[in-house]
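Q: Could you fold this chain for me?
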Amino acid sequence: MRHFLSLADFSKEEILEILELAKTLKNELKSGIYSNPLAHKTLGMIFEKNSTRTRVSFETGIYQLGGNGIFLSSNDTQLGRGEPIKDTARVLSSMVDLVMMRTHEHSRLEEFAQYSNVPVINGLSDDFHPMQLLADFLTMQECEKDKNPIVAYVGDGNNMAHSWLMLASKLGFTLRIASPKGYQVSPKILQKAESFAKISGAKILVSENPKEAVAGADVVTTDTWASMGQEEQKEARKKAFYGYCVDCELMKLAHKDAIFLHCLPAYRGQEVSEEVLESKQSKIFQEAENRLHAQKGVMVWLHQNR
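A: Sure. Below is the predicted structure, expressed as structure tokens.
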């Protein structure tokens, strides 16, 4: 049985296999073909962090695959009252066929998976957001930006930056990350990515220079400066990230056909300008829709590989 907690746990071939499955399911849906590979299966969805895209895409996805989704917030489970994770994992996994968990510490996901009898999917943790990266790369494939691309990530060295490190180091493309001092990626996760890069041939550059990162890039991406749970740091982060806004001047340094990605929600005038978000280069809504298709691919793949 396999879990989907981080892209670090998957080979290049497996990642591309999941993406091919996602494309097939997307094409079938667009053609009006409704296959039911997860008929009568139930997805338990644990939300310890709120979400728009994650909830809607998973709930819609399992329904389109012939199954049923159960939404469980912190107020709906005994986890919110302090029940040990291992107890909830053993009980819930005896009743459902898949579990998606959107949580805080990545260790919570790891513990849940350790005691679960069914595949566990990372809907987001403080360390990684692998589902978003599958949707991002699916968008890159559709925009023909997947062949030896140069990807520039400008902003906070958070779970999105960490997930870009995992994807690039597994697939073997060039990734440049620019973050201000004090907000850079985890050294431990960077070290892991560099070890994968030795095998895949990926080129990874981490700096404090947005212009250096974006120069000649095929894909430019960013994320909010203050993630969920960091609201009290907003003003301090605005000051620290001054000069890291992806605006038209910065985008001009990228390849003329470069695309812009953002996992959303986006804060216009902070990590990205209104002009870039609404430009022809912006693929953010295609990217957002691809969360649905990528996640369907993962759910079916995990079911097939139990």
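A (continued): Strands lie at 42-47, 68-73, 98-102, 120-124, 150-154, 174-178, 203-207, 219-222, 259-262.
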